[in-house]
Amino acid sequence: MEKKTPTGELYELLETSGDFCAVDKLLETEPITFTRYLKELMKTYQITGTGLMRNSLLSKSYTYQVLDGSRQPERNVVLRLAFSLGCSLKEVQHLLALSNNGILYPKIRRDAAIIFGIRQGYSLAEENEFLEKIGEQGLL
């Protein structure tokens, strides 16, 4: 596996280098897609497809369609997957952006409650219960 160049180093190279080819050689050739990023997070958090399916309470076929890229998940599904993995706020925002769903915006009450739950380390069930308790639509 190739070593990835940190984003900060790429910015610095772009500012200081007069040769784009030097920077271009360091760029990843495979685009980062939602599916690819989700699989990277699964490796990071050491969870299998079966574990992700079980934790997110999604059907087997739906989970595997998301994992093979044949299905683009809607926002609540992305959030369910993120809570199932225990993602950080930054990771959740990246998943939402890559899936073409709106990122969490703290001025929206429900989004603020989801951000709060992520920061508190809530499980999917805890977050769902919290949302319903404050009168917002749950994730399940």
Characterize the structure shown.
- The protein is an all-alpha fold.
- It has helices spanning 7-16, 20-24, 34-44, 49-56, 60-67, 75-85, 89-98, 109-120, 124-133.
- Helix 3 (34-44) packs antiparallel against helix 7 and helix 4 (49-56) packs across helix 5 (60-67).
- The N and C termini lie far apart (37 Å).
Topology, element by element:
Layout: H1 7-16, H2 20-24, H3 34-44, H4 49-56, H5 60-67, H6 75-85, H7 89-98, H8 109-120, H9 124-133
Which descriptors would you attach to this protein?
140 residues, mainly alpha
Give a brief description.
The chain is mostly helical and 140 residues long. 61% of the residues lie in helices and 0% in strands. It has helices spanning 7-16, 20-24, 34-44, 49-56, 60-67, 75-85, 89-98, 109-120, 124-133.
Task: Please indicate the percent range of residues in DSSP E strands (runs of 2 or more).
Answer: under 5%
The arrangement of helices and strands along the chain is HHHHHHHHH
Count every beta strand, where a strand is a DSSP E run of 2 or more residues: 0
**Rg calc:** 17 Å
What are the low-pLDDT stretches, counting only 5+ consecutive residues below 50?
none
